[in-house]
Amino acid sequence: MSEQDTPDATFTTVAMAEILMVQDLVKEASEVIARLEQTHPDDERVKALRRRMSQKMGMGLKSQCPAVEKGFDRIHLHFSDDTLHIEWELTDDGLALAKRTVRYSGFSIVRLFSAVPGPRGVRTSVRDLILELNTGQQDISGTAKGAVHTAAVGFLGRNGAFVPMARALPITGG
Questions:
Q1: Cβ 73 vs Cβ 110: under 8 Å
Q2: pLDDT value, residue 4
Q3: What is the pLDDT at residue 54?
Q4: CATH of the structural domain 65-172, one choice from 3.10.310.10, 2.60.40.10, 3.40.50.261, 2.160.10.10
């Protein structure tokens, strides 16, 4: 099998990059776009994809910052200047219970749920942000205007089981 016959070369299309972006598979979409940029450097569709990907990759890439501990499992969402602010806290007792539930293997996450109304109905997405800190905050810019967001903070087991420890009230952005 030659290099051109590999599955990666077969699926290097603008349509595939768009499908991956809609599914929030940012890394895979970025790889497809990079290959398209090499083979079609002057294609306006590829340039537009790169701009959209750059905007999408700006979402949530700011590093997490510590927040003030309040002593209970919590998560709070709010908007300002088209930026979604997420603040959370996971207590040691709550984490110990969640870890026992999923047999100790996994990671702490914020699971962000978004619903965006559009001409073809409502498009929903779920995004997991792996937490570097048990108490912290993170800003996400570039969210869709009119989208409704809610989140849960908890522990995601390697077996796929999610143990929510706190939930945020839904909010509408932009």
A1: no
A2: 46
A3: 66
A4: 2.60.40.10
